[in-house]
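Annex B. Sample input.
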Amino acid sequence: MGHHQTIALEKQKGIVEVNLVGVLNGIACCLDLLKGTSGARIINMSSASALYGTPELAVYSATKAAVKALTEALNIEFEPLGIHVCDILAPYVRTPMIVKAAVAATSVTRLGVHLGPQDVARVVWRAAHGKKVHWDVGFMMRLLRVSAMLFPFAQRPLVKMLGFSSSTTPT
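Annex B, continued. Sample output.
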């Protein structure tokens, strides 16, 4: 991605369209069918970036935090309809979005990419049959979530250290 001020507004809006509006469209399109389906599930794709805004991925983080909040709210709202809503949270996954990015975010370089699509697929399968609201993919995601709960005061310094290179900040 890059530093926020270097990303064109149209590209930022495109990220919102795909990551948030796309989820809203999917839910709207399938809701009537899901209402009449026993054991219905909506499984949203959130991200580790939903836990705390990630530098160089600000708009991406904002959309994934919105998806996480939407998931939590709809999990409660849709319960009387018999629809379970949950999300998948993963750190970086070896996909073209990451491995073929023109510019790698500092956090990608520092944390590395240790998950493949098959790791996410395994968790999606479990989510399709489970009752949790948030499903973590991989040890790093569990570690991030637990550390955020136990040490909330450490989130900002940790994210800043792992995800931001002030030496490359454009003016």
